[in-house]
Design goal:
Strand order of the largest sheet: 3-2-4-1-5
Oligomer: single chain
Structural class: alpha/beta
Number of strands: 13
Distance between the termini: 75 Å
Order of helices and strands: EHEHEHEHEHEEHEHEEHEEE
Helix content: 25-40%
Radius of gyration: 21 Å
Length: 259
């Protein structure tokens, strides 16, 4: 027997303009919106008529169980995540908890995943075109992954000349993790390697800075920053008076000079 509908929705960076049409329709048509309190506050003004249920940081399992519980009552529920719900989001955990619920109750929940714009893409657009070639995304948070494993992934990315996007670069408890990550990249890259970070992507106070790998290692950032480390081909170009971070794809084209 089926119960309600549960949609896991990526809302993108946070601004209404950067939500997908599919995301907006899902939030317009649902009965209840559930999420981390920071994210529910970002969407409340656009969907004031909805029922909202919020939880605090590090309550991911409880948030997902609440979403399943509300859907089991026959409601249409939207569980929201920032960025894309399938990139460090709630999509995987929802499937695990829903499978447990179906096994124990014999009832089924209709689940759908609504993708959103993750910080690697929205932040990359702010910077220019840093991810035109192969790249990887690595979180520096060790809440779910031991630092030793994160180090191995950083070493592999650095040695393979990937462009790298670092999520969760620094927190009050992890003040030196970005420095450690940069040291790993400095074993394989020049200290002048073009890098950048973007803070508050798509939100009030958005800002970015393009800097060298050496300067990045000395920077004090926070959880609202996304870090970009270029590969050996990444360069800084000045367009219309603004510096942009660009990684060439490798196209060969004829340079034309005006007569």
């Amino acid at each position: 027997m089926e119960t309600g509908i549960l949609q896991v929705v990526g809302i993108g960076p946070g601004s209404y303009e950067m939500m997908t049409i599919q995301c907006v329709k899902a939030l317009e048509n649902c009965d209840c919106i559930i999420g981390y309190e920071v994210y529910t506050n970002l969407v409340k003004e656009h969907f004031p008529q909805k029922e909202f249920k919020s939880t605090s940081m590090r309550k991911e399992e409880g948030r997902c169980r609440l979403a399943v519980e509300e859907a089991s009552k026959g409601k249409s529920v939207a569980l929201i995540c920032s960025g894309d719900c399938g990139v460090y989001g709630m999509a995987g955990l929802i499937y695990e908890i829903a499978a447990e619920y179906e096994s124990s109750s014999g009832r089924k929940i209709q689940i759908s995943i609504i993708p959103g714009i993750t910080a690697a893409l929205s932040g990359g657009a702010v910077l220019g075109a840093p991810l035109i070639h192969d790249f990887c995304v690595i979180s520096l948070s060790d809440l779910m992954t031991p630092w030793e494993k994160i180090e191995k992934r950083l070493e592999a990315a650095a040695s393979a000349d990937f462009c790298a996007v670092l999520y969760n670069p620094m927190s009050h408890k992890r003040i030196d993790y970005l420095f450690k990550a940069c040291k790993i990249f400095l074993k394989n890259r020049s200290e002048n390697q073009p890098c950048a970070y973007v803070r508050n992507i798509g939100r009030e106070g958005e800002e970015y800075k393009i800097l060298s790998l050496k300067e990045l290692a000395e920077s004090e950032l926070d959880m609202f920053c996304t870090v970009f480390i270029g590969n050996s081909q990444t360069r800084i170009l000045e367009i219309n008076g603004e510096k942009k971070l660009v990684t060439p794809r490798g196209y060969v084209f004829e340079t034309r000079h005006s007569s």
